[in-house]
Write a structure and sequence with these properties.
Elements: E1 3-7, E2 12-17, H1 23-34, H2 38-49, E3 52-60, E4 63-77, E5 81-92, H3 101-115, E6 120-124, E7 143-144, E8 152-156, E9 167-170
Parallel strand pairs: 5-6, 7-9
Antiparallel strand pairs: 1-2, 2-3, 3-4, 4-5, 4-9, 6-8
Helix pairs in contact: 1-2
């Protein structure tokens, strides 16, 4: 079981892997954070498709308050199919946002993926938020994405992982693309 402990300046919280009994709370966190069921439904489809690589929750004062999911995706190049990881979705309960919990879930998730020898992570996200974790639009410039280029970013977990990788991004069927 993966744990990532953090001491926040106000309270103590930690990040751990999602457990079977967490699913209903994970759904409610995503629905509350996004104000709709789309992301929660996506999580269920990704779980059904068996492409989830890491599903982490943030526990704050014994309450689940955040969730982040990483799933398998691919990059179809001219000669090969390169494995990559999608970061989506990430959610924190509205009453616990702006405490650094989302950032710690990203850091812990990326650390876990490094331990598991993953090399590339892709995210469709706010261009002012994700670069602080190493994501960049420039790293994704040779990747053909179904999403807008200004919000599509890549991160190399292993130096050179994106070197000479040029191709079309293939998300799992759960994304509906």
């Amino acid at each position: 079981m993966f744990y990532c402990g953090v001491v926040n300046f106000i309270k103590h919280y930690f990040i751990r892997e999602e457990r079977e009994g967490d699913r209903a709370l994970v759904r409610s966190i995503n629905e509350a954070a996004f104000g709709r069921a789309d992301e929660a439904d996506l999580i269920e489809r990704l779980q059904s498709e068996n492409v989830v690589l890491a599903s982490l929750v943030a526990v704050f004062d014994s309450e689940l308050v955040g969730h982040i999911l990483f799933s398998r995706m691919w990059i179809q190049t001219a000669h090969d199919l390169v494995s990559a990881v999608a970061l989506a979705p990430m959610a924190v309960l509205p009453k616990r946002q702006r405490l650094g919990i989302g950032g710690e879930m990203i850091r812990c998730g990326l650390d876990l993926l490094r331990e598991r020898a993953e090399g590339i992570v892709l995210v469709l996200g706010h261009p002012d938020y994700y670069p602080r974790f190493g994501f960049s639009c420039e790293k994704a410039c040779l990747l053909e994405s179904p999403f807008p280029a200004e919000a599509f970013m890549a991160l190399e977990l292993r130096r050179g992982a994106l070197e000479r990788v040029n191709g079309r991004v293939k998300y799992p069927a759960a994304f509906g693309l």
